[in-house]
């Protein structure tokens, strides 16, 4: 980007004065759990479509929640850059950003960014991998052509239900 705005691909630990123009791809709340407290989390993308994960911890949630809207564009600065420690990754960026009380997050209605809210992956690419990374989220388009039975799993006293689905892409790949 021009001037003072950086690109997400350049974000690392080397400085603390990063400034970004980003689109909010997804925003969601994560309830408190055994590993940490309540957070408000976002997936952001820049003008080149690169993505980074952002986390807002409980003390700052009330400050930022009212101004965050998916698909809007924001100017952001004064944030922490941390190693991407997430078990399940929403982006492949090695870092994530964390808001602090001094983070500036201002809606920008003048900047135009492309709408790159999906990260579609072709079925062929998934089949070509020897081991599919089940810790990284991707987007696919497919038609449900088969379903398995509902299976119940109990872990740490919590009951989860799962069903295996078979998908086909427009070319018939499964």
From TrEMBL:
Membrane-spanning intervals of the chain: none
Signal peptide range: none
InterPro entries: NA-bd_OB-fold, RFA1B/D_OB_1st
Pfam family, one: DUF223
Residue ranges constituting the Replication protein A 70 kDa DNA-binding subunit B/D first OB fold domain according to the UniProt record: 7-105
Protein name: Replication protein A 70 kDa DNA-binding subunit B/D first OB fold domain-containing protein
Upper lineage: Eukaryota, Viridiplantae, Streptophyta, Embryophyta, Tracheophyta
